[in-house]
């Protein structure tokens, strides 16, 4: 499994309620997206930065999403281009599901 940490700066601080509205509007793009296990939307405490943490089955699945069209949409919606940091994710503890997942 791979975790992608996506970040972008906002042109001006965004209140949490507005960020929630923007993020919620984008959820249909990610529901049942092949290879995506989980996505967390993030807003910095100061409202000046945002992003997401994505858990993917593989980097190849992630890279299908992070194409030029996606980058352009994120830039147009939030005002700056995203940066992506990649992490291997060999073990997950999920206390809500009372589960531990070990990557193959």
Question: How does this structure look, described?
Answer:
The chain is α+β, with helices and mostly antiparallel strands. 28% of the residues lie in helices and 37% in strands. It contains 3 helices and 6 strands; from the N terminus they run βαββααβββ. It has helices at 16-26, 59-65, 68-78; strands spanning 2-9, 36-43, 49-56, 83-88, 91-94, 99-102. A 4-stranded antiparallel beta sheet has the order 2-3-1-4. Strands 5-6 form a two-stranded antiparallel sheet. Strand 5 and strand 6 form a beta hairpin. The model has no long low-confidence stretch (mean pLDDT 95).
User: DSSP strand (E) fraction?
Assistant: 35-45%
Query: Overall mean pLDDT score?
Result: 95
Percent helix range: 25-40%
Low-confidence stretches: none
Structural class: alpha+beta
Instruction: Summarize the biggest pleated sheet.
Output: 4 strands, antiparallel
Main β-sheet, spatial strand arrangement: 2-3-1-4
Give me the count of strands: 6
SSE run? EHEEHHEEE
First-last Cα distance: 8 Å
Count of discrete alpha- or pi-helical segments spanning 4 or more residues:
3
Shape, principal axes of CA atoms: globular
Radius of gyration: 14 Å
